[in-house]
Write a structure and sequence with these properties.
The complex is a heterodimer. Helices cover 55% and strands 20% of the residues of chain A. Chain A is an alpha+beta fold. Chain A has a three-stranded antiparallel sheet. The termini of chain A are far apart. Chain B is mainly α. Chain B is built from 13 helices and no strands. Chain B is rod-shaped and about 105 Å long. The chains are: A alpha+beta, B mainly alpha. At the A-B interface, helix 2, helix 3 and strand 3 of A face helix 2 of B.
């Protein structure tokens, strides 16, 4: 879900996605895990890639959401929002 | 491409090889794509490092990437890698089950000489796995698929041996003795010997059934219970009163039928 949100509305280089995710506090993940997830998301049709020339070296592969990816991301975000709302309710009850 | 020291280059080659090994059998991941991404990631991370890049600097990057063996969820691994992973990292209670099943499979590949030894070994390991689970008061769960084949192979073999050994040993000798001792050899035809064999086996099953039905009283009288447990468990445990009754019933039926047939044969042809 974090990966899909990171590339929502834009195209990102794989390495840049990793850098974005590692900057999130509390998200403990081996950086290498992200690349197989990207590959799997591509195989399942949630993301697609395009090769763009780079000024810093060889051409780079950029990842962007497909329509299917946007749909599943929307569902995941809604689900996450519901979970968070439920958890917040519990926190409110604790204070009482 | 970045320049690496010899040590770093060897380390990188080893890491990439490990990654290929881990990813090659996973259907949901494009191994070439991941390898390309990882290589680019390493190059980007080390772009600012002084060249040739040292082993220490490379190791910092590889540690952040993590071990390739942990990149894929277990359910996406092929069955044989799941087995190795469980054996290597799983809890101790599963290791015995895997080793037991491994030895069981190996027994059939080892040829005639190794078959019995390895089957016995797999059986002992399977029993140990069962005891371990019992001592922790845990259910065997999915482990049973690994533990039951070695156990059942020995239980069934032992059960058949207990039931049928007279067919292969005692009965033919008795029939042979009768034929040799009796000068009217021709009277004991092949069919007659077969009837006698059936009678002996049936009688033996009757005796076997009776012995196992009165087993608790008989064994407490003949053998110390602890010694019995050590020697013949779990076979004795599996030989329940129901099984004993079935053996007794079949034995009675067979002995009676063959006795009638034998008498009829004698009366008819003797």
């Amino acid at each position: 879900m974090c990966i899909l949100n990171a590339i929502k509305g834009t195209s990102l280089y794989g390495y840049d996605i990793v850098r974005m995710l590692r900057d999130i506090d509390g998200l403990v993940i081996s950086e290498g895990t992200i690349y197989p997830i990207l590959s799997r998301l591509k195989q399942e049709g949630f993301v697609r890639t395009k090769i763009i020339e780079s000024t810093e070296g060889p051409p780079r592969k950029y990842y962007q959401l497909t329509a299917k990816g946007e749909k599943i991301l929307s569902e995941m975000n809604n689900y996450w929002r519901d979970i968070k709302a439920g958890t917040d309710t519990l926190k409110g009850e604790e204070k009482l | 491409m970045i320049n690496l020291t010899d040590g770093a280059e060897k380390r990188l080659d080893k890491y990439l090889q490990e990654m290929r090994t881990c990813l090659r059998d996973c259907a949901t991941v494009d191994a070439d794509e991941v390898e390309q991404n990882i290589t680019e990631h390493i190059e980007n991370e080390l772009a600012a490092a002084a060249e040739p890049v040292s082993l220490n600097n490379l190791n910092i990057v590889l540690e952040k990437l993590g071990s390739p063996s942990q990149w894929l969820p277990e359910e996406e691994l092929p069955w044989w890698r799941k087995a190795i992973l469980r054996l290597r990292t799983g809890p101790d209670d599963w290791r015995l089950a895997y080793i037991s099943f491994g030895v069981f499979v190996l027994a059939f590949l080892a040829g005639r000489m190794g078959l019995l030894v390895l089957l016995l070994l797999s059986f002992v390991l399977a029993r140990a796995a069962v005891s371990e689970a019992n001592s922790r008061q845990e259910e065997l769960g999915a482990q049973k698929w690994l533990i039951y084949p070695p156990l059942l192979s020995m239980y069934i073999t032992a059960f058949l041996l207990i039931l049928l050994w007279p067919c292969f040993y005692i009965a033919p000798r008795i029939v042979g003795l009768l034929q040799v001792s009796d000068e009217t050899y021709a009277l004991y035809s092949q069919a007659e010997s077969l009837l006698l064999l059936g009678l002996i086996v049936g009688t033996y099953w009757v005796l076997l059934g009776v012995v196992f039905l009165i087993r608790p009283k008989l064994l407490s009288f003949l053998i110390r219970p602890k010694l019995l447990s050590f020697l013949i468990r779990p076979f004795a445990d599996k030989f329940t009163r129901t099984v004993a009754r079935v053996v007794l019933l079949f034995g009675s039926g067979i002995a009676l039928a063959f006795a009638i047939l034998f008498i009829w044969w004698q009366w008819q042809y003797a």
